[in-house]
Amino acid sequence: MNFGVYQALTKSRPFRMIRNMDNEINEWLEHEYSAFERQFFSHCRVWRLPVHVLKGTDLYRLFETFSRTFPDHPSDVNTVFYLIEPTKPDSVIQYLSLWCSHFEHSGLEDLRNLVSFLDDANHLLSRSPDSAGVSLLDSQREWVVLTI
């Protein structure tokens, strides 16, 4: 594209282009989040906490640790926390799950790092010494679901 055409396009509609792109991304993310929630949390009450809205909180710092530990793909767009409350009347336990929808770390060293991260997260967020775990590690879909 020549520079004159580029200037004409960007002067006339830059914000509309960005707004449309943001809407498309948000629609895609909502579709991804909703499909995941239907698959894994249909039997629970669930509150979705996208990482980008958690800046300045302990959960965001936990995400930053997660991102430093696994630097290739977790981002504040493809990583979501969920607060989960089972709908069973006798259950008083709430869970916190972390879902990363682009996670390519499944080797032995990655698993060691995952255990270390879960141990740190467990100390930060739970009173129970053994409440953290891996709910799903799917190297085909590149997903990880951690529960604390």
Helix content: 40-55%
Distance between the termini: 51 Å
> How many distinct domains?
2
Order of helices and strands: HHEHEEHEE
Inertia-based shape: globular
E-strand count: 5
How many helix segments?
A: 4
Instruction: Profile the largest sheet.
Output: 5 strands, antiparallel
Numbering strands along the chain, what is their spatial order in the largest sheet? 1-2-3-5-4
- Residue fraction in strands: 15-25%
Spatial extent as radius of gyration? 19 Å
Q: What are the segments in which pLDDT stays under 50 over at least 5 consecutive residues?
A: 1-18
Report the mean per-residue pLDDT as an integer. 78
Structural class: alpha+beta
Fill in the keyword field for this structure.
single chain; 2 domains; 148 residues; disordered N terminus; alpha+beta; five-stranded antiparallel sheet
Can you describe this structure?
With 148 residues, the protein is of the alpha+beta class. It folds into 2 domains: 1-40; 44-147. It contains 4 helices and 5 strands, in the order H-H-E-H-E-E-H-E-E. The chain has helices at residues 3-12, 14-40, 58-69, 108-125, and strands at residues 44-50, 79-86, 95-100, 133-138, 143-147. A 5-stranded antiparallel β-sheet has the order 1-2-3-5-4, with no helix packed on it.
